[in-house]
Structure formats: structure tokens, C-alpha cells
Design goal:
The complex comprises the extracytoplasmic solute receptor protein and the two transmembrane proteins. Part of the tripartite ATP-independent periplasmic (TRAP) transport system. Belongs to the TRAP transporter small permease family. With about 160 residues, the protein is mainly α. It has one domain (about 10-160). Helix content is about 75%, strand content about 0%. It has six helices and no strands. The chain is elongated.
């Protein structure tokens, strides 16, 4: 990563840590299963949880660096002065969707907390797993906002050229 590339350090560390833990517990489970014909019960539940963490943390990093999959044809065909409007529309659509995920994810986590629901595999409270969904969606919204500001400033300074 170059020095000028935007950073999302906490999300990068969180994603790397989640991936490392997934690898360690999966490898440990494979070794134990082949040497003892038994397996760790917690590996699937933790792996799925950590995979969700990895996905959303990675999405926040991609949002900050503006490397999400997108179609640039519309951006390239628009006049330079209209690109910030398109950027704002892209941001607004993304934030609307993520805000819905934050709202309903937080509502679900709260309901699971108040109902004292437990996970079927290990019996841990399910809200511990679910609370990360709205928290990481808020991180994505923050990174999208940073990216929007940066893209609009770059458009203003360079006459519309931007880095992909």
C-alpha cells in the first residue's frame, strides 16, 4: 500500500485477526479430527461469526479505499462538474441501505438480548454475535463518507480526474 492510499487501520486489523483466528481454529479442528476421530464443537459457530466480521471489516476497508466493484462508465461519461452529484447519489444509496441494516441489525440484537436467546451450538448469548452487524455497518458508513469527501475534493482540485 502506498503512503498516499487511504487507510482504515482498525478495520484492517480486525479483518486480519478474524482471518487468523479462522485459520487457527480450522487447522486445529482438522488436526484433532484426523488424530482422534473427534472434533471441536465450537469451530463452526466461531468460524461463521468470524467470517461475518471479516466480510464487514473488509467492506469498510474497500469503502475507504474506494475499491468496491462498480461500473465506472457512467462516471467517465459525465462532465466533470456533474461527477460530485453522482458521487453524492452513490453515497446516499449506500448509506440508506446500510442505515437499514444498522437499524434492523440493532433491533435484532436488542431483541435477542431481551429474550436471552442462546446460540444452538455452544449456548452463548446470540446478541454477542449480532451486535457486530450494526457496529461494522456504521464503520462502513463512516468510511464511505470519508471516501465521498476525498473524491469530491479530488474532483474539484484536479478538474475531475480521480484514482480508481
Amino acid at each position: 500500500m502506498s503512503k498516499s492510499a487511504p487507510d482504515a487501520r482498525p478495520e484492517r486489523w480486525l479483518a486480519a485477526l478474524a482471518l487468523l483466528i479462522i485459520c487457527i481454529i480450522s487447522l486445529g479442528n482438522v488436526v484433532v479430527r484426523y488424530t482422534t476421530d473427534a472434533s471441536f464443537a465450537f469451530t463452526e459457530e466461531f468460524s461463521v461469526f468470524l467470517l461475518v466480521i471479516l466480510t464487514f471489516a473488509g467492506a469498510a476497508v474497500a469503502a475507504r479505499r474506494h475499491v468496491h466493484i462498480r461500473i465506472e462508465l457512467v462516471e467517465e461519461l459525465l462532465p466533470v462538474r456533474l461527477r460530485p452529484l453522482l458521487y453524492l447519489l452513490q453515497w446516499a444509496a449506500s448509506v440508506l441501505l446500510l442505515a437499514l441494516v444498522v437499524w434492523y441489525g440493532a433491533l435484532l440484537a436488542w431483541e435477542e438480548y431481551t429474550w436471552e436467546s442462546l446460540s444452538p451450538g455452544l449456548g452463548y448469548p446470540t446478541w454477542i454475535y449480532l451486535i457486530w452487524l450494526p457496529v461494522l455497518c456504521l464503520a462502513i458508513i463512516w468510511r464511505l463518507t470519508q471516501s465521498l469527501i476525498e473524491r469530491c475534493q479530488a474532483c474539484r482540485i484536479s478538474g475531475g480526474a480521480h484514482e480508481s
